[in-house]
Design goal:
Rossmann fold; 15% strand; two-stranded antiparallel ribbon; six-stranded parallel sheet; alpha/beta
Amino acid sequence: MSKGGRALRKRAAAIRLVVFDVDGTLTDGGLVLGPGGQEFKVFHVRDGQGLVMLREAGLEVAVVTSRSSEAVADRMRALGIRYVYQGCSDKLSIFEQLLATLNLRPAQCACVGDDLTDLPLLARAGLAVAVADAHPAVRDQAHWCTQLPGGRGAAREVCDFILDVQGRLAAMTARYARGAS
């Protein structure tokens, strides 16, 4: 479905929470391991700015990932993301907890992922998004697939789309242009 589709825009208009996977979604999926197993990840700065813009617009942002990494904790802390769940083998139970905590319905949640572990969330979300280079089964489950791959601007594409549909992107862009970030 194209981003201009009426049904897709209706789904995006209802979103109050956006849940992102990390590896392959907020990163390109590559893992760099250092001495002692220390993990290094590369995050795209514009994706981070998109997450900040969602927060500034009053939307909730969460990260739910199967792996655990101090790099993820540090990056999400720097972006002001409160809901960070790592080492989750059961992403769906975390999703259900988030909905209860925030008093939201699944239709008010977007989930963005790239691999098979994301399928339960995508099946439950009001707006299921697959990054461009997601596994074919994930792309098949999604309401929309980004044009950009994971870790290369896909998250920002999702953020901008939701903010635009909700009528918030233009004002936010103008505010940043005036230097009032």
